[in-house]
Request: fold
Amino acid sequence: MATPGTAYVIDSKGFLENLIMVDMDNPPEGVVLEPLPSSLFKPKWNKKSKKWVEGLTKKELEPKLKEKEDNFRSLLKARVKAKAKTLIEEVAPIYKQLNWHADGVFDTPEVQEKVQKIKEIRDNSNKLEAQIEELSSLEELEEFAEKLK
Reply:
């Protein structure tokens, strides 16, 4: 019985041309069975090392890495903001119910405690966003993202 799987067709220079389904027990000649890393922008098969490598030149790669880093940074900031919003909504559902124009509404200890907690959440969110801005590489951003989980 055949075991289906994905194989990669490469050109004479090792660049990825196509994906095909094959019988993994009897693959056709000249295809690569090694899984393709998702981190490569232009996959190239290195026949000597039998590994996928980045096929872009440094000059071609730099703007793509910068774009990926910027996108990841924006995503992290959005996650921090969303988490802060969720925490605020958990801490202070009373905010949705308050009449903001009512006299003395902020005088109760319960409301003051919630206001203080919201300030702490916002401050923490701002600090995390500042830390994200200070990170200088995609690797640092990925490590930071792992800590946020």
